[in-house]
Amino acid sequence: MNNTKSPKNVSLKNQLELWLFCALIGAVAGALVWILLTNLCIQFGLKGGHFFPVIFAGVCMGYGMAMLTCGPDGGHVVFGAAIVTASLLGGIMKKPLAVTMLLFLCFPVKMFIWIFIAAAVGSKLITLKPEQEPSANYSKQ
Fold it and tell me: Which stretches of 4-94 are assigned E, i.e. beta strand?
């Protein structure tokens, strides 16, 4: 038995790695497009909310980024998806504890502290400028 790799097997392995890379880039790009389209639809007055589209986009983006940085054999894929999702949702909701409780539906409870930290950082990073007012004032309606 000869244990050398044939050119056919090497070529197949390279093709699979290329397709995996393209799929991961597509997941990250799709997540960015999903976030933009969600905001666009809400600005045009269509019905719906931010929470579940942002959870979906955060999971796609976190999964893609974790696979690109750690590789397909890395065990940090769920962690990456949880952190990216928590930071995105924290930036939208501005309530880290509520984000943490909501993400208990999607991720393991043992990641509680990391999800909370990411949600807190996300809520502090996205702030309005002092002279800028919110676009909608719901208290006068």
Answer: none
pTM for the model stands at 0.71
Ranges in the chain, pLDDT < 50:
138-139, 141
Query: Mind listing the pLDDT tens digit for each residue in 5-23?
Result: 555 556 777 877 787 788 8
**CA angle 92-96-97, nearest 5°?**
135
Residue 71, sorted as left (phi over 0), alpha (psi -120 to 50) or beta, turns out to be left
**CA-based radius of gyration for the chain:** 20
Question: 112: burial class by Cβ within 10 Å (0-12, 13-18, 19+)?
Answer: middle
Q: Exposed (0-12), middle (13-18) or buried (19+): which is 72, by Cβ within 10 Å?
A: exposed
Token digits of residue 76: 């940090």
Q: How many Å from the N-terminal Cα to the C-terminal Cα in the chain?
A: 80
